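Submission checklist for the structure archive. All mandatory fields must be present; incomplete records are returned to the submitter.

[x] Identifier: Transcriptional regulator
[x] Organism: Bacteroides faecichinchillae
[x] Residue count: 98
[x] Sequence attached
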Amino acid sequence: MIEAFQNINKAFESKVRLGIMAVLMVNEEMDFNTLKELLSLTDGNLASHTRALEELNYIECNKGFVGRKTRTVFRATPQGKEAFKIHIEALERFLEST
């Protein structure tokens, strides 16, 4: 059973980070406010978790303006998509082995 945990990624142990990656896996991109509302998070909570995923190069952040308002958009990187896929597959293998 220990082998089933081998590819579990600690970056996705947080339900917030798991949620962020799940949303970005099925959407090409997602803006900050929509992601915050979908996951019922505060600005600070979302910002800290997205920063952690950015540092791992699992997501990228693009900031710009729409009119006079700032707009922050997140995308999963190829590295992040692969890491998340491996993590989900490891969870599935664990569930099948129990």
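[x] Structure attached
Curator remark: The chain has a mean pLDDT of 93. The first strand starts at residue 30 and ends at 31.
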